[in-house]
User: Fold this.
Amino acid sequence: MFLTRLLLSVLVLVVTPSGFAQKDEALHDKLAGYVDHIGIELKALNRLEAELGDLPDMQADVLNYRIDSRVFRLLRHAEEIVSLLPRLDEDDPLTEEFRQKVIADFGRVDEHVFKRLGQLDTKIGGDLEQLASTSGTERVVMSARIDTLDVLRERYLEAMVRQVNIRKGLGLSVATLLPQVERQLLLRAESLTGSLMMTSALLRDFQSRRISDANRAEMTTLLSYSMDRRDQYLARLQNITTMMQDLGLDTTDYKSVLVAEEGLSYQLFSKDVFGQLFEEWRDAFRLFVANRGPDILLKMFVVVVILVLFRFLSKLARRGGKAGLAHSKANISTLLKDTVTSLTGGLVMLFGILIALSQLGLSVGPLLAGLGIAGFIIGFALQDTLANFASGAMILIYRPFDVDDFVEVTGATGVVKKMNLVSTTIATFDNQILVVPNSKIWGDVIKNVTQQDLRRVDLEFGIGYQDDIPKAERILADVAREHELVLDTPETNIRVHSLGDSSVNLILRPWVKTVDYWHVYWDLTREVKLRFDKEGITIPYPQRDVHIINEHSGNEKG
Assistant:
């Protein structure tokens, strides 16, 4: 190598002017140094490869790692040489000498790279064959080794793609290198595509079997392993397609597979990929319709007939249940009637839906299990609503009130207009509509005014201390007796209730029908006032006695 550098320096001094030689001498030295390094690495590689044949597998693997490090070092030197070549002056007589030398060395480097790629392919193929017969820790170790070799192989391919592009940029010939790189990339892409599709098929099989398989733990392990392998194949296929794109190769087929397996992404989506996917989907749809179309149409017809029939039966069940409850002699609340009617129709319709799904070949068991899980999740998310539902069920069972009852609940007073298992609608006397959650009602005091047929009207009147009490009592008794809505029994109660600060307070407590309460209340209040005025009975204003004390004190002065 020293002789090579010496000859190059002599050629520079003889052929070129002194100024020019001084200018490019450092560049020539760098190039010559890299050429020397390549020569040294090539000799070392030849020596190591010659020793591989007689070594055991373990020692051969260790030595191959050393070979890989030297090959990558060769590739770095090659890239450094390529980066320096453009800096040579075109008039430099040594430029062509360097170019020819570099091209010759590059050819030897390429031979080692592709030789090593062939060894990696052979090694990975052998390990894959052995992998099928291994298990446990040995299988894990072998899988890890295969993955490591796969990554190494792709590093080689990335380096060679980079070499092709670099050499093209410098105008160096890639006539020998490019076909080999393209071949390696195409083989790798096809292998990864097949592995990806096969793994995806296994993954779908494991997913379907995990639901019904007795050994679910093993299925879960296989499923996790298959998902990891699938992700690895996806990443590596994406990497290979990127390399192929760098060389201008057609990657439409492989992108289509990536889109189908991974979903649409900006990096993969293109007009060509979309066109091919559309054609594949169209052809698959046509084939599906041709083979399964009549059968599917017949099944859909049967499903529609079943759903229509059970829809009719559901309505019939609702009407029958409603009519039966209406003619029932049992005292049933409106809420219970509505709930039973709705549940009857809903259960009939649910039964029809399950029958329709079974006609489509769907398993009802897993569906019901899925509905149970979904119900649990929904129930957890809708705790407040379920609390209202539970309170509605308690109201349904214990019936503290019903529709058209006058109630006082949670500060709301009015007539119950509508009830369901979630809320109660109340109309106030000023025609406001209040929707009260059932959990608020059941958790508070419920006052049902109209639940009893009879109700007592409580009235209190104050008269002056100077007025005749017996006379006032007779007037109250006459007013109560003369009102047509006041009941004879229970008997009306009239008493002196209290002695107030300004009046003697009398109470009047007649009994009436609940529906007549307010009519009687207002009528008696008005009539008592009129009769008191007529009979000279006063209803005094609040009074207060004020005593003024005059005090005279002090001595008179004369």
Observations:
- The beta strands are 406-409, 412-419, 423-427, 433-437, 446-448, 454-456, 459-463, 493-499, 504-509, 511-513.
